[in-house]
Specification:
single chain; alpha/beta; Rossmann fold; GMP Synthetase, Chain A, domain 3
């Protein structure tokens, strides 16, 4: 008797148990695909069998380079069922960046979405360990040179699953940090499932929800905060590969979506779209955001225009699978700007350079203990040891804790602006500028300065109809009335949009590179 098999608990089992409980419940919808949990589970087992027939074994890495699709969801759980390791690749990376991740992870198989075929074929020439490419679609003819993913599903359903320990790797998610080479965070089945538990408890994802998955599934926020927990509890999921505001509003209305996650930039784009007030959003009851703080003025606007909607702010990072803290609906305005308190399975502190707790309101680094945490950075023992210094995981985020234990992120260590010997939080300046009614978006950055070493600058996107009001001096004068002199931006740079990664987070490093010479001749 294999007692380990009896107690087995992997990411795949989140689907298996739901399919056994609620086989006829709607599971996955996209376009004309509408799978019940029984159908979805059967297809996952067929693909799992096909992977084994093609030589994929427990522990092998299987990469996915694709936009969102129902086939992506199948692949996610099929890979888990056989104990292989998922390696999702950001489809916005170029050939060299994608090849680095696939080569570094040692992936043997690459599953390729429709729009990424040409890139994948170029990537394959740079990755000698990559043995096979499959076109990631559940039906149809594969492009020349690729096998169809549907061939994998022609196998008989996998009857006997390999024994997979919960502490074995479920996935390697490569971070989009600022270092020259991304780090691969190894997350076990146990870590991901503990994270599911935190989400089900604190974000209130439940079986009666219909969720829209519009943000990229290669990113752990959409994959593991929403798709995974939705599958585990038996909710219905609608998947789209088009996150344009017009398409999102149409889907939210037509599919009667009750639960939706997007970063503040996407929520803002919905509010600004001409179809917003015409869309039937009456079913939308739960809203989630992350990647950055929702500006207070936008929070107020959402509450006015969607009074039935309850909002949650999720904060975390890839390495904690990824949710560490949540700000719940009742605290959105009472604790505006806060990331909330630790979720069910996370313990969080804010510490100084010596690892001691800082005083209430003082700035320190956020550190965590949790079963959700990564096992290691793949093939990078030095960064692993550095991250776990002092028996806590060091996030790299700077924050304060208030008297009620609510966390407020000040900045990433790398994003704190140090001007003339003073520290300036870009977020504080951003919140001030957002109070101007004609400002759609703003990002505050530090730029090299010959006198101050680093100077505060703001990149501002005016609202479409408000360009006549937009001026550099108007923003500076507004800030002077509300901020200490050293916090007031020395330059306001107008822009049509801000660069973002696929999860919607503003890429401040790109802005710093673009505007690096702004103060090159400034005397003070």
């Amino acid at each position: 008797m294999d007692t380990n098999l009896i107690r087995q608990q992997t990411v795949y089992h989140a689907l298996r148990r739901t399919a056994a409980r609620n086989p006829q419940q709607a599971a996955i919808r996209q376009h004309d695909v509408n799978w019940t949990y029984a159908e979805f589970h059967d297809l996952c087992l067929r693909v799992a069998g096909g992977l084994i027939e093609r030589g994929i074994q427990p522990g092998d890495r299987v990469a996915i380079l694709s936009r969102n699709s129902n086939a992506f969801a199948v692949a996610r759980f099929a890979i888990s069922a056989i104990g292989a390791v998922l390696v999702p690749v950001n489809f916005m990376l170029n050939v060299q960046e994608s090849a680095y991740i696939i080569e570094h992870s040692g992936a043997r198989l690459l599953l390729v979405g429709d729009s990424e075929v040409e890139k994948a074929q170029q990537v394959a020439t740079q990755c000698p360990e990559l043995e096979q490419l499959f076109w990631l679609a559940t039906s149809g003819d594969a492009p020349d040179g690729l096998d169809a993913f549907s061939l994998l599903a022609e196998s008989a359903p996998l009857a006997t699953l390999p024994a997979v320990e919960s502490q074995e790797a479920a996935q390697i998610i490569y971070t989009s940090g600022t270092e020259s080479a991304p780090k691969g965070a190894v997350l076990s089945h146990a870590a991901v499932l503990w994270q599911y538990g935190s989400i089900l408890a604190d974000a209130e994802v439940c079986s009666t929800d219909t969720l829209l998955h519009a943000l990229p599934l290669f990113h752990c926020a959409q994959l593991d905060c929403f798709l995974g927990p939705a599958i585990q509890c038996g909710a219905s999921s609608v998947i789209t590969d088009d996150n344009s505001p017009g398409n999102l509003l149409a889907l939210l209305s037509r599919e009667k979506i009750s639960s939706f996650f997007a970063p503040p930039t996407v929520w803002i784009s919905l509010l600004r779209h001409p179809d917003f007030d015409r869309a039937d959003l009456s079913a939308l009851r739960k809203g989630y955001y992350g990647a950055s703080i929702m500006p207070v003025e936008v929070l107020k606007e959402i509450q006015t225009r969607l009074p039935q909607l309850r909002l949650w702010n999720l904060y975390g990072q890839t390495e904690i699978a990824p949710t560490a803290t949540i700000l719940k609906p009742e605290d959105q305005l009472r604790k505006a700007g806060s990331a909330g308190r630790p979720v069910l399975h996370v313990e969080t502190r804010v510490v100084d350079e010596d690892g001691n707790d800082v005083a209430t309101g003082d700035i320190g680094e956020v550190v965590h203990r949790s079963p959700q945490l990564l096992t290691a950075y793949f093939r990078n023992p030095e960064k692993t040891a550095e991250a776990f210094t002092g028996d806590w995981f060091h996030s790299g985020d700077l924050a304060t804790l208030d008297e009620e234990g609510y966390l407020t992120i000040v900045d990433r260590k790398k994003d704190m602006i140090k001007t003339g010997g003073e520290n300036v939080s870009g977020r504080e300046v951003e919140e001030t500028i957002y109070q101007l009614p004609w400002v759609a978006e703003v990002a505050v950055i530090g730029l090299p300065h010959p006198h101050w070493v680093e100077a505060v600058a703001a990149v501002v996107v005016p609202k479409g109809e408000a360009h006549a009001q937009a001026s550099e001096q108007a923003v500076i004068d507004f800030c002077k009335q509300r901020l200490a002199a050293f916090k007031v931006p020395k330059r306001i740079l107008m822009a049509q949009d801000l660069p973002r990664n696929p999860s919607g987070k503003i890429l401040k490093r790109n802005l710093r590179d673009t505007h690096a010479g702004v103060f090159s001749s400034a005397p003070e």
